[in-house]
Design a protein that fits this description.
Layout (H helix, E strand, L loop, with lengths): L9 E6 L2 E6 L5 E4 L4 H7 L2 H10 L4 E10 L2 E10 L1
């Protein structure tokens, strides 16, 4: 089995489709399905994960993507619910 925390103790785990792991003496490990990594790192906090889980609500965040269509590139702004 892979040791993802390098033998550090996991303090808290919150989530399923989107999750956060708190580890001793390290930054929180945050993941959200379908959301860009920089959106998760900059705008979503540990308390947001707890709030969504406890209150059973959905949060939405905007993110920008570059997508090709018929050999042309377009910038798309999309809203993701987490």
């Amino acid at each position: 089995m892979k040791d993802e925390n390098n033998s550090a103790t996991m303090i808290e785990f919150v989530g399923a489709k989107m999750y956060v792991v708190r580890v001793n003496d390290k930054k929180d490990i945050k993941k959200a399905k379908g959301a860009k990594d920089n959106v998760v790192a900059r705008t979503i906090t540990f308390d947001d994960y707890m709030w969504c889980l406890n209150e059973e609500i959905e949060m939405t965040h905007r993110q920008s993507c570059i997508r090709p269509k018929l050999h042309k590139l377009y910038t798309i702004s999309e809203s993701k619910s987490l």
